[in-house]
Amino acid sequence: MGIVEAILLTVITAATPLVLASIGELVTERAGVLNLGVEGMMVMGAAIAFAATQMTGSPYIGILAGIAGGGLFSLLFGFLTLTLVANQVATGLALTILGLGISGQIGEPYVGMSGTKLQPIVVPLLSDIPFLGPLLFKQDIIFYVSIALVIGVNWFLFKSRAGLKIRAIGDNHGSAHALGIHVIRTRYLAVMFGGACAGLAGAQLSLVYTPQWVENMSAGRGWIALALVVFASWRPWRVLAGGYLFGAVSISQLHAQAFGIGIPSQFLSALPYIATVVVLILISHNRRMTQINTPACLGKPFVPDR
Amino acid sequence: MLAVRSLTKLFGSFAACNGIDLDIKSGEIHALLGENGAGKSTLVKMLFGVLAPTSGQILWKGESVRIPSPGAARRIGIGMVFQHFSLFEALTVAENIALSLSPGISLSKVAEEASRLSHLYGLPLDPNAHVADLSVGERQRIEIVRALLQNPELIILDEPTSVLTPQEADRLFETLAKLKAEGRSVLYISHRLEEVQRICDRATVLRHGKVTGACDPRKETPASLARMMVGSDVASVSAAGTNTKGDVLLEAKHLTVPSRTPFAVALKNVCLKVRSGEVLAIAGVAGNGQGELFDALSGEYPVADPAAVSIRGKAAGNLGITARRLMGAGFVPEERHGHAAVTTLPLSDNLVLARSQSDRKTFLAGGLLGIIRQAVVRIASTRISEAMDVRKSGENPAAGSLSGGNLQKYIVGRELDRQPAVLIVNQPTWGVDAGAASRIRQALVDLAKSGSAVLVISQDLDEIFEVATEIAVISEGRLSDAYPAHDLTREKIGLLMGGMYGKTEGEVAHAH
């Protein structure tokens, strides 16, 4: 395996959690709910997935536990903001702080333990393609799922009736209610989808990226995922592109630092953020399209007037 | 077909609808008349399942029914076109329509069917256009086509013509006649009497949540219908009398403003002059640049060229709203809540917010400290309330606790109290009851009589003819020349408004 291939593999590993968390948050936000608790849900997923894997010995059960953990944790957010109509920004921030705390408790017994790394699934024939084969078809299941989710969410939002309803609720929840669409129920589902995706992203961190438990191991990736959704103007393909761009620049700056290029390391560390923001701003220069894609009801509370 | 028996809806202790009885026969256009706040919208929301009645009965074809949701209303055959459109701006026409249809119909079929139906009823539509790009008239067509696709037996239209040009309204009436000929019933909500007399077979009049009369509108006079609606005779506004034209106090010269957002309208080379003693009214269909014009003239968004706007002969285009107030201008924006007034603050605080600079010496003490002289402000606030007959609960209540009409009277009074040399008002009586509207209009006319220049931006032609000495029409951000009010008719104004609708007119002529 050449050096380029090795670097690209790490890029994929770094980008996958970002893509997963972003695509989940994208669906949540398309339904008009701003959940700033991605970081908290992600780190909960990481802790629960690691703990479940240690207990059962199976990383697949760990993955399922991570998804369930993130989903259930987001249900708390849903109950507070949708049923009790609490402020979404404040609740999201609280969810992040709470998630960092609880995950520390859950992971406490496992600190310093070496984990079980999720093994890749080799796709026959396709993995024999030179160069691309080992990159794309000798990956773990979470990578395959992340790509499938981007394709699936794109189809779901823009081709299916249920996706149309989600976009309608995000655009104008009052009208959606008047049409007889269940605003609150749909938003619950969208929030839980976002939580489950963030939980899966967390599972990737503790089972693939660095197979161990470290406190606060999400390390701000939840916030990056949130930013990616906005800069990608709520479009799935751009989330994928943004996630990989960020992953690529952060990996290459690490290599650059290792080679000792004469650029201050602080600047190199900032590079992934700068590059992602610049590129995504450039591709969203069409303001009309951005406006059409921005959910007009984002973050606004909905109380049906009955 | 539909009967309503002693239907009541309580919001807390307030009865929005109080024991309403209503009968609609099949194949008739039935008018529901009433002032703003009379309970019309509440009543139809109950019929369409958006609100749940507190007590009373709804009978559909003789059988008592419960309508828990709009979906249930559609299933039994009731369709509705809302006053404030329930459309999704970010979605296409076809997607908007698909949302209200039963599941299982593919999007492409919806597009075909919508386009077929819309041509059948003379309401041409492009199914793939984004709603955000459409005019208000076109948006209403979507609502109507969406209701028609359900094949309803009763269609409820809530204030459908308030957003249309006279020509567009005529086309809507043709569509309604077609529906009636097919044996469908229409419940037509309006406060425009001449329309109701023209197209409706029967009318039910509401006031303060109660039925005050049922009649054949063609046998009534506008005055007798108005009396039923308002409960007393409405004072008519005596028009401005001064023909002697004074100096130009407000002028816009080649005012050009690019659109700030994709959905906003750009102003193109707008020129206008308002002299002392004049009321210039700007007519136009909603969304043709009225808000943008107000922003540019008031300084809410200043323009680069100082000479583009001048107030009392001085260039003011690049100045902000406070600087323009100090030059002797006053402004009343369109939106009462949150724009003209902070709803959670008491009236006196709202007065200080608007006039803290122009009346600095009176309202503020302590030089740079700017301490509010509450006693002085309260006296001024009471003076305004008395001058404009503002009815409020308590001495100095929160602005949001006033009814729309009373808050609007206060906001207009707040400016009039300064005797501004130039007053610019956007939609002075939008959503205001007839009594308050006539009070406000009279005040505008009186201000002009006393020598000020008044600019009124309005979508209400009745209002324009009541107050204006000169009329200009705005369409797609372009302003027509101003004509003396007595030289213009509704039809002429309609043609000027319709500058932008030329294309659709042609399409319709083709379809017939």
Descriptive report:
The complex is a heterodimer of chains A (306) and B (512). In chain A, helix 1 packs antiparallel against helix 9 (183-209) and helix 1 (3-30) packs antiparallel against helix 11. Chain A is 73% helix and 1% strand. The model of chain A has no long low-confidence stretch (mean pLDDT 91). Chain A is globular. Chain A has one domain (3-293): ABC transporter involved in vitamin B12 uptake, BtuC, CATH 1.10.3470. Chain A has helices spanning 3-30, 38-56, 59-83, 88-107, 132-137, 141-159, 161-171, 173-178, 183-209, 221-231, 236-259, 265-283, 287-293, and strands at 121-122, 138-139. Chain B has 512 residues and is of the alpha/beta class. Chain B is built from 18 helices and 23 strands. In chain B, strands 13, 16, 19, 20, 21, 22 and 23 form a 7-stranded mixed beta sheet that branches. Chain B has a 6-stranded mixed beta sheet with strand order 6-7-8-3-9-10, sandwiched between helices.
Q: What multimeric state do the chains show?
A: heterodimer
Mean pLDDT of chain B: 84
Q: H/E order of the elements of chain A?
A: HHHHEHEHHHHHHHH
Give the largest chain-chain interface (CB within 8 Å): A-B, 24 and 25 residues
**Largest sheet, strands/sense/barrel of chain B:** 7 strands, mixed
Distance between the termini of chain A: 65 Å
Shape summary of chain A: globular
- Indicate the mean pLDDT of chain A: 91
How large is the share of residues in beta strands of chain B?
15-25%
* Structure classification of chain A: mainly alpha
Give the number of DSSP strands of chain A.
Answer: 2
What proportion strand of chain A? Answer: under 5%
Number of strands of chain B: 23
